[in-house]
Each structure stands twice: as structure tokens, then as C-alpha cells.
Amino acid sequence: MFARDFCCSCSFPWTWEENKRFELYLAKFPDDTPDRWHTMASFMQGRTPLELKLWYEKLLLDVAEIESGRVEPPWPQRESNEEDDVLVEEASPTSSTGAKSEPERKKGVPWTEEEH
């Protein structure tokens, strides 16, 4: 079971938005941040420092399980195929000649002498 699904000490299930905010705060407050979990909890209403710390530990376990190959990642795995390659080519910022296309410039009103 993945940490994103369940946390035995959590008062209520984690939402997708909470997970995203948690990830952002992990990046903003690295391991060496003093009182890391208290600081993060002050930004995550409804979550205690202990909940955040336990959630982090469960996420580390999830990552270890995925990296070891014992557990499949929670997202669908896809093989590259021709359809994907076409989509990448269509999204590419190059023209059919291979040269990068210039972004269209906005036409503005020239400045007056007073504005210079």
C-alpha cells in the first residue's frame, strides 16, 4: 500500500492537493532545516508535525520498494511507440526544414519623443 493512500496515524486521508503542497514544502525546507516538520506543519493546516514526518517516512519506503522492483509505480507505464513519436514531432518548435521557428513578434505602438 502506498503512503499516498493511507497513513495509520493521520486524522484524515491525504488529498492530491495536500500531496503536491507537501512535495513543494519538502523541496523548500530541506533535511537540514531546523524544526523542519513544525515549520512545514505551520503551512499545512490540519496536519501535525508528527503526521508530516510519518508521511515522509512512508514515502521513502514507497520509493525504496519501487526502485527495488518489488512494487510497480503508481502511474501507468507506457512503451514508446510511433504515435508518441508523431506527437513529439508535432510539438517540436522546428519547421519542416529543421530550423527553429521564431516566435511571432507583437506589433506595438512606437514611443513618442516625450516618452524617451
Automatic annotation (TrEMBL):
Residues 13-60 form the Myb-like domain. Pfam families: Myb_DNA-binding. InterPro entries: Homeodomain-like_sf, SANT/Myb. Residues 70-116 are annotated as: Disordered. This is Myb-like domain-containing protein. It comes from Nymphaea colorata (pocket water lily).
